[in-house]
Specification:
single chain, alpha+beta, Ubiquitin-like (UB roll), about 25% helix, globular, binds iron/sulfur cluster
């Protein structure tokens, strides 16, 4: 069974159940940008705008999404989105932020714009990972970076929230800062250790033909007794 959709202005036919990224490749179209992890949903490079068929008038909504995680639908219209850069570089030296009693106090100093959040919710609507971005910005700006960092566990740095923010707060970079601070002043997360070991051992699997699944990904775990990741 196949479906028809428009991708970057081209009419293409795709097998039902394929991801948008698979459909693009199956159509023989070249990937010259917006290419990263090739289907694993971890790099955030393949951000797209999607309009679904059947939505019209006041219900017509264009959504942001990741092409590798979104299943094709008949009548869809899809465009790749350029990467949004940070408004400005946020300079900090993690080695100088090693005092866990005071390190978190520096967040408002490094990101003063976070206090200007207008609570418009644009970042939440833009996030393809369903992260409570606005809440993270609020928590980080009032000195609660541990809770803020936990909210950002699934962030893939696609920067769609950066593009959406009218105050140019650069939420993804604020999330990166709080995660780095928490990571550098506490024990490292077990899933991060396992992932880095997999990459170091050349076990990072890339399969562009993988089935798309709605199931939650299996959590990585570390065998503490043996010191091995799984
Ligand atoms: S928080 Fe921002 S950068 Fe992270 S996944 Fe969501 S939209 Fe992308
Ligand atoms: S888009 Fe920017 S201003 Fe709006 S809620 Fe998110 S961080 Fe705040």
């Amino acid at each position: 069974m196949t479906v028809r959709l428009r991708f970057e202005g081209r009419e293409i036919e795709a097998r039902a159940g394929a991801s948008l990224l698979q459909a693009w490749l199956d159509a023989g179209l070249p990937l010259v940008e917006n290419v990263g992890c090739m289907g694993q949903g971890v790099c955030g490079a393949c951000h797209v705008l999607v309009r679904r068929d059947g939505l019209a008038g006041p219900d017509e909504v264009v959504r942001t999404a990741l092409a590798c995680e979104t299943v094709v639908e008949d009548g869809m219209e899809v465009f790749f989105v350029d990467h949004a850069s940070a408004r400005r570089p946020h300079h900090y030296d993690l080695r100088a932020l090693d005092d866990s009693w005071t390190a978190f106090d520096r967040v408002p100093e490094i990101f003063p714009e976070a206090a200007h959040c207008r609570h418009c919710g644009g970042c939440d609507r833009a996030c393809p990972k369903g992260i409570e971005v606005e809440r993270m910005v609020g928590l980080a700006s009032v000195g609660r970076p541990v809770e803020a960092a936990a909210l950002f566990d699934e962030c893939v740095m696609c920067n769609l929230c950066v593009a959406a923010c009218p105050e140019r707060i650069d939420p993804s970079y604020l999330g990166l800062l709080v995660r780095r601070l928490v990571g550098s002043t506490t024990l490292r997360p077990a899933d991060l250790i396992a992932r880095l070991r997999e990459i170091g051992a050349g076990q990072q699997r890339v399969d562009v033909d993988a089935e798309i699944s709605d199931e939650e990904p299996r959590a990585a775990s570390v065998d503490v007794a043996r010191g091995e990741g799984a």
